[in-house]
Design brief:
Distance between the termini: 39 Å
Number of strands: 19
Shape: globular
Number of helices: 14
Length: 409
C-alpha cells in the first residue's frame, strides 16, 4: 500500500499539477492525511519544485471555532493571511488540495453563521479565487480517507476495515494499480475525454433538455461560443494539468438567464459539513425561484442565497451512468467522487475557460455573454440510470445526446 500511495502522490504531482522546474507548490491538507502529504512533498521536489509549502487543517478544530467563537471574531481576516494568498499568486504557485471531508460534522452549526464567515473570507481573497478558476495556475484535488469519512461511507464495517475499503476504492477510481504507471493510464484517459469534448463542440448545441423519472424536466441554455472541456486543462502558458483526480466529466457554461424547469438531486450533497438530501430546485429565467430538501434545507438555503450569483448556474456537466465510479456502487459522500458518477450542475461562478475569448474578457464582459459571477461554485448531482438528454442545435434540430444515462452520440 505504501508503494501505491507513492504512485498516487506521483500522479498528483506529474499529471495533476505538472510541476514546472523551480515552481512553488502549495499543499492544503487535513492533518490526518500527513502520510500522503509527505509523499506529495517529496514527489514535488523530485519533479523539480523550487519550494513546497504545506497548510494543515482539521475539521474538529474548525467545528470548535464555529461552536465557540462569535461570528464577528470568525469574520476577522488578518492582513498576514491576505499576504499569504497574494504571495501564492505573485509566485504563480501550483496548488494541490487533499480532500477528506467529515460528512455531517457541522449539522449543529447555524448555516447562516457559516455563510457570513465564508462570504467575509471570500471577499478578502477574491483575487485568489480568480487566479485559480481562470486557470492562471495548475491546480489539483485528490482525496485521502480519514476514519470519520470512511465510517460514514461504510457504517457496517469496523473502523479499520472501512478505512482500507475506502482507500482501495479511491485508488481504483484514480487508476492507480500495482505494477502499472498511473501517469500513463491517466494521460490515456485524458485523451479519451478530449475526443468526447471535440464531438460536443462540433455539435455546438444551443441548449440541453434533461428529463428522468425523479421528475427532472430542465432546459439549460448554453452561452454562445461555449467550449466543452473536461479532463486535462491548460494554463495561459500552455502547461497541461488535471484539476480533478478522478474525473469522468465533460462540462461547459450555461447561460445564466436561460435555465428553465425543475431538477431533482440524485445523490446527497455534502455542503459545509451538512448532508443535504433529496432536494429540488426550480428555475425561471435562470434563477432558482423555489427549493426544498428532505434534510438540511437551511444549509441548502445558505447555498442558494450565498450571494447574488449563487442562485444561478455556472456549470453543466455530462457523465455517463455506466462509468467506473458509478459502477462501484459506492456513495462517497464527497463531491469530488460523486459528481463523477452522475451528470451534475453547479450553482455559482462559471469557469471562463468554457467560452471562447475569455482570457481577454473582464468580469463585466463575461457577465454580458451569459457567464455567471459568484464567490462560490458548488456542484450537485442529478444524473440517473434513466436520464435522457436532448441537445437542441442552433437551427432547432433535436439530437439525442444521452439515453438511459449513457451517451448515444
Amino acid at each position: 500500500m505504501k508503494e501505491l500511495l507513492r504512485e498516487y502522490a506521483r500522479l498528483s504531482v506529474k499529471s495533476g499539477v505538472n510541476v514546472q522546474k523551480g515552481q512553488m507548490v502549495v499543499i492544503n491538507s487535513p492533518a490526518e492525511c500527513v502520510e500522503l502529504t509527505r509523499l506529495i512533498v517529496e514527489e514535488a521536489y523530485l519533479a523539480g519544485a523550487g519550494d513546497v509549502r504545506v497548510n494543515f487543517t482539521d475539521d474538529i478544530i474548525s467545528h470548535h471555532k464555529y461552536q465557540y467563537q462569535t461570528v464577528e471574531k470568525l469574520m476577522e481576516f488578518p492582513n498576514w493571511m491576505i499576504d499569504k494568498y497574494q504571495e501564492i499568486v505573485d509566485n504563480k504557485a501550483a496548488l494541490i488540495e487533499i480532500s477528506a471531508p467529515t460528512p455531517g460534522l457541522m449539522k449543529d452549526i447555524d448555516p447562516k453563521k457559516m455563510q457570513q464567515v465564508q462570504i467575509a473570507s471570500m471577499q478578502k481573497i477574491k483575487f485568489f479565487r480568480t487566479y485559480q478558476m481562470s486557470d492562471e495556475c495548475q491546480w489539483n484535488i485528490v482525496a485521502m480517507p480519514t476514519h470519520a469519512w470512511a465510517s460514514a461511507v461504510f457504517p457496517d464495517l469496523s473502523k479499520e476495515e472501512a478505512y482500507t475499503k475506502l482507500l482501495e476504492a479511491i485508488l481504483s477510481a484514480c487508476r492507480v494499480q500495482e505494477g502499472k504507471s498511473s501517469v500513463e493510464a491517466w494521460d490515456a484517459h485524458m485523451d479519451t475525454l478530449a475526443s468526447h469534448n471535440q464531438i460536443m463542440n462540433e455539435y455546438n448545441f444551443r441548449s440541453l433538455h434533461f428529463t428522468n423519472s425523479l421528475g427532472t424536466d430542465l432546459t439549460v441554455g448554453l452561452v454562445k461560443d461555449h467550449i466543452w472541456a473536461g479532463g486535462a486543462e491548460y494554463t495561459g502558458k500552455g502547461v497541461r494539468f488535471s484539476p480533478n483526480i478522478p474525473t469522468e466529466e465533460m462540462f461547459t457554461m450555461p447561460h445564466r438567464l436561460e435555465v428553465e424547469g425543475t431538477v431533482y438531486s440524485s445523490k446527497p450533497l455534502n455542503y459545509s459539513g451538512n448532508l443535504i438530501k433529496d432536494f429540488m430546485l426550480r428555475f425561471e429565467k435562470g434563477k432558482v425561484v423555489e427549493f426544498h430538501a428532505a434534510e438540511a434545507e437551511e444549509a441548502l438555503r445558505s447555498l442558494v442565497e450565498f450571494d447574488e450569483g449563487s442562485c444561478y448556474l455556472g456549470e453543466v456537466a455530462l457523465v455517463p451512468y455506466d462509468s467506473p465510479i458509478s459502477n462501484s456502487g459506492i456513495l462517497f459522500l464527497n463531491t469530488l467522487f460523486d459528481e463523477n458518477a452522475s451528470c451534475h450542475l453547479a450553482l455559482g461562478r462559471c469557469y471562463p475557460m468554457n467560452i471562447q475569448g475569455a482570457l481577454s474578457m473582464s468580469e463585466e464582459e463575461l457577465l454580458s455573454k451569459g457567464g455567471n459571477q459568484s464567490m462560490t461554485h458548488v456542484d450537485f448531482m442529478f444524473g440517473t440510470s434513466d436520464m435522457k438528454v436532448v441537445g437542441i442545435t442552433q437551427e432547432g434540430q433535436e439530437i439525442v445526446v444521452m439515453e438511459n444515462g449513457n451517451f448515444v452520440i
